[in-house]
Amino acid sequence: MLDRIRSRFRRKPSGKTLSPDNIPQHVAIIMDGNGRWAKSRGLPRVAGHHSGMKAVKRITMAADRLGIKYLTLYAFSTENWKRPKSEVDFLMKLPQEFLAIELEELIANNVQVRMMGYKEELPPHTLQAVETAMERTAGNTGLVLNFALNYGSRKEMMDTVRQLCDEAAKGQLEPDKLTEADFESRLLSGGMPDPDLLIRTSGELRISNFMMWQLAYSELWFTEVYWPEFSEEHFLEAVSEYQRRARRYGGL
Ligand code: FPP
Asked: Which are the catalytic amino acids?
């Protein structure tokens, strides 16, 4: 037991420990730089994505050890369909490959797999792998590993607006009495707390249509490191920086 607690609060590179009382509840990550990582090694882009899949495992386990409750990973955006078909096909095979290798260990670690995104356009083999994982882990109570797959924030918000209009037209809600909670509960992330910390790798300083409503008060942390090289140490560095921030939510 003591070992488990100690391992959760392992030492940061600076030698200081993380505060157990201020672990972010929800961390979201824009996993960027797979292509550039591959190019810098003379490899095809898909080799970067494959290596990125290993980083997914590494960071999931690190998040679990730290006691983070929700980890949302931007695995495929609604805009990523514009990429060459061969790359899209490869990306669509990754959830299946990842879950074939890792699902048993995720289950053993009490991890709950979820998906946030539009299922309709996903190839059957991708959807089936994710749905099987979701079903098999539905009763788990540990880390929620939430894959943002075929996800786009503008579409999510537009769909929510459409749904609210529809409900109003049917007389099921009064527009004047609409609350932020009403809107939030209809988003794809409904039921999850907003991310406390957003990490983006690869040096890009953009949100890229990711959780734009939910990130309103999140702490943002960027690193030059490409996603395939993102290590547990980097992750702990991000959490450590998060713990140094004063969150004021617009107040003093
Ligand atoms: C962005 O890097 C990355 C993606 C669009 C795909 C992210 C997917 C993974 C990390 C693997 C997901 C694994 C599972 C299990 C779902 P990029 O290709 O845009 O990199 P670049 O900007 O350097 O070209």
From this structure: 32, 80
